[in-house]
Specification:
globular, about 25% helix, alpha+beta, about 290 residues
Amino acid sequence: MKNLILTLLLLISFTSYSQNFYNIVVFSDDGEKFILFINGVQQNNEPQSNVQATNLTSQASSLRLEFTNLAYPVLKQNLYAEPGYEHTMRVKKTKKKAIKLQYFGKTPLSNTSMGQQINHGEFNVAEESTQTQTNSGTPSNNQTPSNENSVNVIDINTGDNSAVVNIILPENSNPKYPNQNTTMPVDNVSVTNSSNCLTPMNVASFESFKKLVQEKPFSETKLSTAKAGTKNACLTSEQIKSICDLFMIDNDKLEYAKFAYTYCFNKANYVSVSKSFKFTNTTKEFNNFLENQN
């Protein structure tokens, strides 16, 4: 009994402790070695291809990678990390051979601290199905839902993956032309939009879309799904900000915000999307983007 009580106390103590800290793991897909700096502090003395920084407390972290291979550029990335998790970043090459530092996922510290070894090289984004449904049915990859309200988005090429997404909408609803009896949150501002965005997505459809994006475990597929769904929709600036809030790093938030501008119902209030950003530099780049729009 004493041993059981001691074990429980240790678990409670560790859980409370881990909620105030987080770890960052950075690894290179092709094994290139680097020195990692977080908020200007060097994390590893010798160049490595997989570096772990532990017990970090500052949620707003600025990452910098300097490679021993001089053909690789210095990579910089801002990360707003949630405490209580080990956050993983990876260095990868895009189709255009550009080098990119990308958010890869998170694991609760309670899992990583119990002696479980995580092999980051075993993650495979391609294993995730590119066909997703929000209803309870699970059709085979060769089947197409018969629901006439489904939105089929094909050949949305973002990053390294093409996404084919089926969003099953509630009955009698459509993202462009919702039921007249459906109420929708629209910001109280003047409406400026393109001719292809006449009525914003209704509440039920947006919540289904948002849940679909939120369930994606990796930033790459989360971003491609968000873009795919947005391309066939009409969203308010508040809805777009809500999707931006689902991303962990500002670069992904900014990329989606720029993409979604075309599909915004009330562009006059688009500056409010910047509330989702954690870093000043991202907000400045976003504001410059808005200034250049017609």
